[in-house]
Amino acid sequence: MTLEQAASPETQAATLTEALHERIRQDIILGALPPASKLKLEHLSKAYGVSVNTLRETLSRLAADGLVVAEGQRGFAVLPVSNDDLRDITQMRQLLECQALRLSIERGDLDWESRVVAAYHKLHKVEELVEERPDELGESWERYNQEFHSALISNCQSRWLKFYYQAMYDHSRRYRMISLKARPFPRAQSAAEHKAILEAALARDADRASAILEAHILKGAAMDDALIDPAKRPKSGPNKSASIPSGSHKPASSKPRATKTAQRRKHI
User: Taking the model in full, what pTM does it have?
Assistant: First the structure.
């Protein structure tokens, strides 16, 4: 008898719900379900192979997580992105993660050091190669980056602090995934910051480690912010994210020139 056969219907239903919740959560964070997109129950129930009722329950949980918006009778939609939201997430992540890092360093021991060094070693190895092979190693970099940040705060004993940190990390990661699709992330600078954070943490210098981490979080958010706000994007190169309605991009001077020409003809 398999575990699935041995499990009660209630256990199987709970396992299915948890798996569905995690899958849709990842699809939202990674951008497979884009920001502000409508989550149509009939379509998604077929795509995920679950009942409409199970899907509705899962989307309600994701609304509580802040990744989905419940629109009353209109159903559900993925949470939109905005500069204000990103700034709010960034400030919260700075507060939570830097405090968790301080508490983790205060309780630092050999086991904690081992976790941090091991996580950094994997991240560093990928960082050496990811610039040349971003399509192949980008996903590994993202995973090892998260493992490193998690290892740094792993000795923090506050369950709630780590719970809310993880929520803010997931939200900031969603913005990072959006920015990565628009342009490459300059990981060389990020790699230098990771090394500096590691050295300060191992030296038990909580003030320096927190200061570098705070700037590290802010720098990444500033890059994401520039991709959401057209006014902050680099002027060089094509702008793939511009939201100009089809057929509305006309030279700004075309109408005034036509008016002046008509006036000259009138005087003649």
Answer: 0.74
